[in-house]
Amino acid sequence: MIWSIVMEPGGKWSGRISRGKLLRFTAIDAGANVSLLLYHAHDLTERYNMPDTLKAQYTSHLSTGNTLMSDNGRVMASIVSDDLGWHDTISSYTSRAMTNAKYGSTNYQELRNDWHRSGQENFAVELIRNGLGVRDLMPNVNLFSKVICDENGSMHHVAEHCYAGASVTLRTEMDVLLVLSNTPNPLDARSAYPSVPVKMEVLQAEPVDDQDVCVNHRSENRRAFENTWSFYGLI
């Protein structure tokens, strides 16, 4: 293991991570949700593209074998192992108004680090720290959450999806800026602000070979990997 951190409830984190690393996320307790954004570390205009990721892989959620593709048709990260089989891509992140309405109004001046943070605010702070801003917010991935649609098109959060100790591991295929927010899924029906720490560990990955499960998940995946390999082969 190269590095690790435990993100407390409401916590946020951002950092640049080079390609060829494993990012292992583990829910310390049941009911976790970690919202995630990805940007190319050396060209912040390139970032995770939710529509291309989903349509290229014929899915609305992510699990082992799936990749997170950029808006340049390259693979930013791949999911190489997953205990849960479903990670949400469609329900977005919480706002201040949403957080106040669901959990009650709080502020830092009164409660210090126990105040109820929102995903939007956490993302905004970390983006500004990295030379970006609120205009660079985009659709995110919610690790550990399962959101389904019923026959009428309404979305529902599955409360019992994430159990204590569940983990998911991503492999970086590019040098990335990773931005995280340990805040509730917007569709989580719990009336109390969820309090679930999540551990993130960074490890060295094995080289990707031609038999890799993510490369071969779909033909579109292979093309995106080839675009990524060509990019790094020419720099």
TrEMBL record:
Domain DUF1989: 7-177
Superkingdom, natural source: Bacteria
InterPro entries: DUF1989, UAAP1
Pfam name, any one: DUF1989
Database matches in NCBIfam families: urea_degr_2
Name under which the protein is recorded: DUF1989 domain-containing protein
Organism (species): Paenibacillus prosopidis
